[in-house]
Amino acid sequence: MQPALLNRLHQDHGRLARILEALESKAAECGSGARGEALDTLANLIDYIAEYPDAVHHPLEDRVFEHLTGKELSDQERQLLQANVVQHDQLTAATRKLVADIDSLLADSAAAGAALQADVDRYVGLQRQHMRYEEELVFPLALARFSEADWQRLTEADAEVHDPLFDQRLSRYESLYEYAVSDAVEPHRERH
Questions:
Q1: Whole-angstrom distance, CA of residue 135 vs CA of residue 191
Q2: How distant is the alpha carbon of residue 107 from its chain centre?
Q3: What's the confidence (pLDDT) of residue 109?
Q4: How far, in Å, CA of 155 to CA of 35, rounded?
Q5: What gap in Å lies between CA 95 and CA 109, rounded to an integer?
Q6: Residues in the chain with pLDDT < 70?
Q7: H or E segment at 178?
Q8: What is the pLDDT of residue 102?
Q9: DSSP one-letter code for 192
Q10: I need a surface site. Which of 39, 105, 137, 144 has the fewest CB within 10 A?
């Protein structure tokens, strides 16, 4: 049986895949000049990414990686973990760029739509590559090295944190939730 924390991380990746699809779709609309509801949804998507994947999900993974560094690992495995932490930093910086792009778009900057599209494409590519990296390399390493007690210790430290979009369904994300789970967003077909 797979540990609950690892199930949660897999579930987060699946949910984030839907968010990435929605992000691509809304960025394309806004890049083509759409505003109003499309821009509101795009801003909410980016806000959610900053609030949950960047501020909660990645730090949780970092705690898993930090715990892993206490295990017997090869130099290659240690490099794998360090590369993953660097990817988290890159994703956080890419999210900050998306926030700046939205601010420019809201200020009606003429070049903001093109910049936003390029930055969304970069972010989505980084995020998809990162999730594959974790799913295929890092999570199996944790599964191989951690005992049940290791997983329990990590799970207890994180018991009170919930996804504000999918678990808590905060009111500010209600329309985003409806959009993200609707048929308007097709889930990404690749394995994450």
A1: 9
A2: 26
A3: 64
A4: 42
A5: 19
A6: 109-111, 157-161, 167-175, 177, 179, 181-192
A7: helix 174-181
A8: 87
A9: -
A10: 144
Measured in residues, the chain has a length of: 192
> CB under 8 Å to 63, separation ≥6 — which residues?
154, 157, 158
Q: Which of 65, 55, 38, 36 is nearest to 96 (CA)?
A: 55
Beta carbons of 192 and 128 less than 8 angstroms apart:
yes
The amino acid at residue 72 is: E
pTM, full prediction: 0.85
Residue 69 exposed, middle or buried by CB count within 10 Å (0-12, 13-18, 19+):
exposed
Q: DSSP 3-state helix, strand, coil percentages of the chain (rounded to 5)?
A: 75, 0, 25
DSSP codes, 10-70 = HHHHHHHHHHHHHHHHHHHHHHTT--THHHHHHHHHHHHHHHTIIIIIHHHHHHHHHHHHT
Give the distance, in angstroms, between the CA of residue 82 and the centroid of all CA atoms in the same chain: 18
Amino acid, res. 100: A
Task: Return the ∠ at Cα 38 (arms to 37 and 40), rounded to 5°.
Answer: 60
Distance of alpha carbon 67 from the chain centroid: 21
Cα separation, 118 vs 28, whole angstroms: 10
Three-state secondary-structure class, residue 189: coil
| Tokens of residue 50, six digits | 């900053």
120 contacts 23 by C-beta, under 8 angstroms: yes
